[in-house]
Amino acid sequence: MSSAARPGRSNRPGNIRYREDRDAWEARVRLPNGKRPSAYFRTEREGWTWISKMVTEAERGVCVVDSSRRTGEFLQDWLRDVAPRNLRPTSLDNYRRSIGHVLPWIGDIKLKDLKRPHIERTFAGLARGDDDRPALSPSTLNLAFRVLKMALEYGEDIECLARNPMHRMTAPRAGEPRDRVLSLAEIESILREAHGTRWAALFWIVVATGLRASEVLGIEWKSVDLDTGLIRLERQTGRVPRQPGVHLLPLKSRASARTVQVPAQVCAALRWHRDVQRLEQKKAEVLGVWEEHGTVFRGPAGKLYFRSRPMDELRRISSKLGIEEVTLHTFRHTVITLLQECGLPMKATQALAGHASERTTARVYSHALPEHLGRVADATGRIFEGMELPTGQLILTDDAAPWNTGGGQPGGQKASHTA
To answer: What's the CATH architecture for 184-418?
Structure first.
C-alpha cells in the first residue's frame, strides 16, 4: 500500500508513502532552498498537515529543520547566508576559522539535541588541546565562543532552536595584553637607526600618535595637512580572503575614522618622505611599473604594504640595538601611557587611539576631541623634543626596487646619494 500523492493534490511540493517496515507514513517535502526533509506519522492526514506547515514556514522565512539536521550543517548555512551581511571579508574569514575550531566537537550532534554540556566540553577540550590539535590561545577561544553564541542566537530567533544552549554562559577570558612601555632613550635609538629608510616617517607617526600599523599604512596624501599637522584616518591596508595582494579597506569601525594632529617633528619627517618618494615615483614611471594608490607609505613601485612589512623592519632594528619585546603595538601602548602621565584627559587619549565603543566615541568626538587635538600634539611634541632629524636627505632604497640590481638590506638600507 503506498501513495505518491493524494488525488487532486499532484501539485503539492511533497509526497507520502506507507512504509511497511516502519508501519508508518513517510512524508517528504521539497523546499525552496532545495532541501527535502522527511518525517514519519501514524496517519496519512498527519503527514499532509506536516507538509503544509513546512511549506508555509519556509515561505514566511522561518528556519525549517528536519529532526535529523546536524549542528554542523546549520553553522555552515549560517556562515554562508547570514554572517556575510554585516561583516568585512577579513572578519568573515575569522568567523569561518572560529566555527572550524568547534565543528569537530559538535558538528555531528543533531541541532535539536545540542545542550550546554556539549558546549562546555567543546571549549574545555579546545583550551586543553590534544595530540592532533594544539590548545587555542585565550583570545582565540574567546572569539570562537562569541561567534558560536551569535550563530545559535540567530537559530533561536528564527525558531531553529527552542532555546539557545549557550544562554547565560560566560565567554572565556581573552587574556591580558602584556605590552611594556619603552623608555625615551629606546625610542630615540630606534628612530635614529630608522633615519634614512622608508620607515622613518612611519615610525615617527606611530611613536607620536599610537596609531595601528594598518591605519598608518592606509593614510593617503590627500588626507594629510603638513601645515597644521592634521591627518584624517579613513582607510587601512589589509588582505582579503581568496584575493591576492594587499588592498585598501574600510577601517575597523566608525570609531576608527578620526582626525589626529602630529607635532612638528612628524611633519618634518613626512616632508622629507614625500620629497624622496617623488623621486622614486619618477624612476618607476620611466620603467612603466608605477602603481598609483595615493598612500603615504608604499613600495618603490607604488605597491601597498601589509602591516607585517614595517614589523619586519622594526624587528631588525630592535634586534640590532638589543631592545627586546618591541612591536608596533608597543609604540601604541607607550604613547598612550606617556600622554596620560603628561596629564592629558583620558577622553583625549581614547579619541586619539580610537579605543572607545561607537557610543562612547560619539560622545568623545562631539565634546572632547576638538578641544584636545592641539593638546595631544603639544604633549607629544614636548615628549619627543630634541629628537630632530639630522641634516641632509637620503634617497630611500629597497631591495625590491625595480631599479635596484644590488643585494641591499630589505627596506632598511640607506643610500649615499643626496636628494
So the answer is: Orthogonal Bundle (1.10)
